[in-house]
Structures are given as structure tokens and as C-alpha cells.
What does this fold into?
Amino acid sequence: EVQLVESGGGLVQAGGSLRLSCAVSGFTFVDYAIGWFRQVPGKERERVAVLSTTGTYYADSVKGRFTISSDDAKNMVDLQMNNLKSEDTAIYYCGAAQRTFYRDGGLTPAILPLEYDYWGQGTQVTISS
It folds into this structure.
């Protein structure tokens, strides 16, 4: 059974750093997209960062602050979050996508939440100010 498990969430001060990890079991993700998403009450699930064999994508709100990376030997994808802001408070989810999608710009990894096939349980990140 495919399983994604997030870890590393917690409470940190604004301006601090936190590192989230997503452990993937049931398949290797070298040919897939792995994404970090976040969601707060009353809002849509938001893409934070996506890592695929063809490229890396970041939401404008986190560019320059967050970095997504992979540890292929452990089948794990991390999200290093620096310069955290109160607006980063959310439940963070990792997702895995088995498909790519053709858009105006050509073939791309899965970007939208509905394009992802598997999800973890989420980990809470709370930033105090």
C-alpha cells in the first residue's frame, strides 16, 4: 500500500526555521512528482513546492525562503522552511502524483492538488509572532 508520512511540524517563532520530511513507501518517486501543500481553515489547499524529475516549482509566497529536496536512498522529500512568517501557519501535506499533464507550455508535472494521487496525513506548523 502506498503511504506518505509527514513529520517535523511544530511551533516556532516568526523568523525561525523548520524542516519537514515526507517518507514515501510503496513506490519510488524518481519518476513521479512529490509536492508539499498547505491548508488553513476556510481556504483551498495551496501548492507550496513540487519536486519532479523535470524541475522544481515554488509558490511565489515561499520563493527564496523554502527549499524542497530529496533523499532518494531513503525515499524521502524534505521541505526546508526559513524566515518563517505567521502567514505560513497551516497544516502541511505531502502528495505524490503518478501522472504528468500537457498544458500550453508543454508537458509538466502535476501542479494542482486535484492532480495528485496520494496524500499524507498532514503535520501542523504554527508560527508565533
Summary: The two ends are 40 Å apart (CA to CA). The mean pLDDT is 92.
